[in-house]
Design brief:
about 45% helix, globular, binds S-adenosylmethionine, about 20% strand, Rossmann fold, Chemotaxis Receptor Methyltransferase Cher, domain 1, alpha/beta
């Protein structure tokens, strides 16, 4: 049987998805809802998409909502994605923070990975930090705290486990770094505890308040703004600016730009990275 979505059903889900996770789907994206939510028709014993939609109302535990969000979000990620932000972290920012620590100006450096997916971004941040301080024979790695968040329960569970199969582990990770920071468990690779203990994972919808997170020195909010409306991008960039400590830094994805959405940052560049510093 072909489960086709009607225009009316598409517009119900289009609104629902934007309200519940900010993802803005153009009218041309009906196929995406159809493909990504079709398995829920079977799981919830529905014959049409409107029947599925009507089940949301009686879904007191929000389980269906979470499954819709899980199915609709794009979780693509890999180790040291786009490499340049991590080079900038090591070559420009860690030397600054290292000075701040040694002079006593800072005793904690906090970094937020704001849409961390299955954990490759926050763990790559930690590996960059540990590599930098190892080369500089310093113990300052312990001054860093990484908070990683995502809206999706399933990617967070995977991130928290720190366990990856051999295909996933090979995407962007050099074997010498892999062997230093992961150990093999059967056919799987497990991130070492010294990396894991530097990251705390939280479920957070970027539409919700960031107040409980505290202030940050650096925010990575990469490859997620592209899914949102201009209004929501402006809102997120404003609230990240409020959350950054004075002179704090922001990395967004290489195909994303703050220029139309915020006046709160100065644009900086290092090699092939554009990054931002709060004014
Ligand atoms: C393409 S991944 C990017 C992962 C990583 N930042 C990177 O650059 O490799 C986008 C992530 O954003 C998350 N996401 C989508 N909408 C969100 C929202 N409203 N709040 C928090 N996270 C969201 C998705 O669950 C997904 O894991």
């Amino acid at each position: 049987m072909q489960y086709k979505i009607t225009d009316n059903e598409f517009s119900l889900f289009q609104d629902y998805i934007e309200k519940n996770c900010g993802i803005h789907l153009e009218n041309s994206k009906a196929y995406l809802i159809e493909n990504r939510l079709r398995h829920l028709l079977f799981d919830y014993n529905c014959k049409t998409f409107v029947e599925l939609f009507n089940k949301i109302r009686s879904d007191k535990s929000n389980q269906l909502r979470d499954r819709i969000i899980d199915s609709i979000t794009t979780n693509e990620t890999f180790w040291f994605r786009d490499i340049h932000p991590f080079t900038t972290l090591s070559e420009k920012l860690l030397p600054i923070f290292s000075n701040d620590i040694s002079s006593g100006r800072k005793n904690k450096i906090r970094i937020w990975s704001a849409a961390c997916s299955t954990g490759q971004e926050p763990y790559s941040i930690v590996m960059s930090i540990l590599e930098y301080f190892k080369q500089n024979s310093s113990h300052y790695g312990s001054y860093f705290e990484i908070v990683a968040s995502d809206i999706s329960e399933s990617v967070l569970a995977s991130a928290k486990s720190g366990i990856y199969d051999s295909l996933v582990i090979s995407r962007g990770l050099q074997t010498d770094i892999r062997d230093k920071y992961f150990s093999m468990d059967g056919n799987l690779w497990k991130v070492n505890d010294n990396i894991k203990k530097m990251v705390s994972f939280k479920k957070l919808n970027l539409q919700d308040s960031y107040n409980t997170l505290g202030k940050f020195d650096i925010v990575f909010c990469r490859n997620v703004l592209i899914y949102f409306s201009d209004l929501f991008k402006r809102d997120i960039l404003k609230r990240i600016a409020d959350l950054l400590k004075p002179s704090g830094y922001l990395f967004i994805g290489s195909s994303e730009s703050d220029s139309n959405y915020s006046n709160d940052y100065n644009m900086l560049s290092h090699k092939k990275t554009i990054y931002y510093q709060v004014k």
